[in-house]
Specification:
The chain has 208 residues and is of the alpha+beta class. The protein is built from six helices and ten strands; from the N terminus they run ααββββββααββαβαβ.
Length: 208
């Protein structure tokens, strides 16, 4: 799967097929919703308009305001801040993770220059292998560390990490999204800008 991660990261730009504002019955503050429409081949369908969708909240039809079509995958105008979560799952073979090294190291070539990516290893705890940064070398090293860190965890060698318990990947995902918000706040150049946020999970369900 040498190019799988590159394709996954390239798809982030088109995942948001549209953004709409949602207004509920009590007229709370408007919410921006990102969503995609997939065809039978499970690929994003582009060129759609607000009239092509039916938005319902609690079963009631709700008008869309400020509908905007998503940008093409070639667009680099919006920075992406994202975590890549590697599952500790013993059923995952080490080689497919190693096969992603070149793809992950070249990920920034497809993204806005102010984008940041990081890598976490998730078991019953969430351990950072590469912090959020614009650092291709750190991403490469994180993927190369995967096999060694799994072996160390099996024999009980721990490092600084966050306990996630039985929640596993789902709980780690919550922490990762919080980390992304904190990172964006810490970067003055990202203030008052649209920033794409994502967490990409590599687990036994999609890579083995």
């Amino acid at each position: 799967y040498p190019g799988a991660l590159a394709i996954l990261l390239g798809a982030v730009a088109v995942i948001s097929q549209a953004a709409v504002n949602r207004v509920g019955p009590a007229d709370p503050p408007a919410e921006r919703i990102y969503f995609s429409a997939l065809g039978k081949a499970e690929r994003p369908v582009l060129g759609l308009e607000a009239k092509d969708f039916d938005l319902r909240i609690n079963g009631k039809p709700t008008p869309m305001e400020g509908f905007r079509a998503g940008l093409p995958y070639t667009d680099r105008s919006i920075p992406l801040v994202a975590w890549i979560l590697l599952d500790f799952n013993p059923n995952i073979k080490n080689q497919p993770i190693k096969n992603q090294v070149d793809a992950v190291a070249g990920a920034f070539d497809m993204l806005n220059p102010e984008s940041a990516l990081g890598v976490k290893l998730v078991s019953d705890r969430s351990e950072t292998l590469a912090p959020l940064a614009h650092d291709p070398k750190a991403l490469r090293n994180a993927f190369l560390q995967y096999e060694q860190r799994r072996a160390e965890l099996k024999v009980g060698i721990k490092t600084d990490s966050v306990q996630v318990g039985a929640g596993g990947i789902a709980r780690a995902l919550e922490f990762a999204l919080d980390d992304i918000d904190e990172y964006v706040k810490s970067q003055p150049s990202l203030h008052d800008r649209e920033v794409a946020r994502a967490a990409m999970i590599i687990s036994n369900g999609n890579l083995n």
